[in-house]
């Protein structure tokens, strides 16, 4: 296991990149602590697979360094980095038994038979596949095959990091939650540094202690699941995480106050001095309610999702979503929307540009 440090990392697939738009991975500086559970989260094309390939040694970055426990491994090939990787599709040998599949990485490294047997049975017990050890892998279900693939990555005790590249893509939805729970349990037991790459927010937020959110080759926020939900540093984070995502509304600033559709909106605290650029207001649907006063809007859609209603309303040409309990308004009805002030923020060119009142008063 190792602490992983990425310093001034950039990568372009072009031989002579001239500007930021030519880089698949813009400048990245990250520290991943030894034994942590991390997720790389973002849509297809955001750079997360490029970053994973650089860490694993499959790709040498155009610029920057990768350090394992302070040692520069930027130029080292994958086999010298002691990395285990689990891919979208299970990498196992169908003609071998489950036991032999789990033992294979250890046999390859000349580990003695007693240690192999002990490690295989430990991992099999963790994965709940002990009763399958003598079965051929060809007959296993997809979720059990992926369990074995995970086990092959975990059976070695000399790995610096275990990396998971969209490991649940081919798993049936009703089985995904079981494997997610199992993976979280495995991390807590083996204490290995784990990096989980996914475009699925549920997978990232349920697995990781810290999530790295990426967009267009750039890291836009690093935080715990709670931090990403409660205070998105960028409108992309607010939109990408949550269902439905954060409302992002066009706004203008006048004398330090924010206005939407001509109406002043109460904020979490003061707007940062000198804020310019494209100004927007962000508020999550969970913090939008109905009242006797507020922003006048017309209800366009009402969705009953069981535990609550999701209301889509329109005001000033913008869609505003609200999550409501109790009685829902009718489609076409005029309502007044109220935003919870301490959860309403200003963003400029996508980045947060307001400060919570408590932070301001403490400064």
From TrEMBL:
- The first-level EC class reads hydrolase
Q: Does the keyword Nucleotide-binding apply?
A: yes
Q: GO molecular function terms here? A: ABC-type ferric iron transporter activity; ATP binding; ATP hydrolysis activity
Question: Highest taxon of the source?
Answer: Bacteria
What keywords is this UniProt entry annotated with?
ATP-binding, Cell membrane, Hydrolase, Membrane, Nucleotide-binding, Transport
Extract the SUPFAM superfamilies matched here. Answer: MOP-like (SSF50331), P-loop containing nucleoside triphosphate hydrolases (SSF52540)
Ranges of residues in domain ABC transporter: 4-241
Give the Enzyme Commission number: 3.6.3.20
Residues annotated as coiled-coil are: none
Query: SMART domains annotated for this entry?
Result: AAA
Record-level GO cellular component terms: ATP-binding cassette (ABC) transporter complex, substrate-binding subunit-containing
The UniProt similarity line reads: Belongs to the ABC transporter superfamily.
Q: Which PANTHER family match?
A: ABC TRANSPORTER ATP-BINDING PROTEIN, MALTODEXTRIN IMPORT ATP-BINDING PROTEIN MSMX
Know the name of this protein? sn-glycerol-3-phosphate import ATP-binding protein UgpC
Species for this entry = Thalassovita autumnalis
């Amino acid at each position: 296991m190792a602490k992983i440090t990425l310093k001034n990392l950039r990568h372009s697939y072009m031989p002579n990149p001239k500007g930021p738009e030519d880089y698949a991975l813009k400048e990245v500086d990250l520290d991943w602590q030894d034994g942590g559970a991390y997720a790389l989260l973002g849509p297809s094309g955001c750079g997360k697979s490029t970053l994973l390939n650089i860490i694993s040694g499959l790709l040498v970055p155009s610029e920057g360094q990768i350090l394992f426990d302070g040692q520069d491994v930027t130029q080292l090939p994958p086999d010298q980095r002691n990395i285990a990787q689990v891919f979208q599709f299970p990498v196992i040998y169908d003609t071998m038994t489950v036991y032999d599949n789990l033992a294979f990485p250890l046999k390859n490294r000349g580990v003695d038979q007693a240690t192999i047997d002990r490690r295989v049975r430990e991992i099999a017990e963790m994965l709940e596949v002990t009763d399958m050890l003598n079965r051929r892998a060809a007959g296993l279900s997809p979720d059990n095959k992926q369990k074995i693939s995970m086990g092959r990555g975990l059976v070695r005790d000399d790995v610096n990091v275990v990396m998971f590249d969209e490991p649940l893509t081919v798993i049936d939805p009703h089985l995904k939650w079981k494997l997610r729970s199992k993976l979280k349990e495995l991390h807590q037991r083996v204490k290995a540094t784990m990096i989980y790459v996914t475009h699925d927010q549920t997978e990232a937020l349920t697995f990781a202690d810290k999530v790295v959110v990426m967009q267009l080759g750039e890291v836009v926020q690093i935080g715990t699941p709670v931090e990403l939900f409660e205070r998105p540093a960028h409108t992309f984070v607010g939109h990408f995480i949550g269902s439905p995502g954060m409302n992002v509304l066009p706004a203008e600033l006048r004398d330090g106050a924010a206005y939407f559709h001509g109406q002043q909106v109460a904020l979490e605290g003061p707007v940062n001095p000198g804020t310019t650029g494209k100004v927007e207001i962000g508020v999550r649907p969970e913090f939008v309610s109905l009242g006797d006063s507020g922003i006048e809007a017309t209800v366009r859609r009402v969705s009953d999702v069981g535990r609550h209603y999701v209301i889509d309303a329109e005001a000033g040409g913008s869609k505003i979503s609200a999550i409501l309990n109790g009685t829902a308004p009718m489609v076409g009805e005029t309502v007044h929307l109220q935003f919870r002030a301490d959860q309403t923020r200003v963003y400029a060119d996508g980045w947060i540009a307001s400060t919570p009142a408590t932070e301001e008063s403490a400064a």
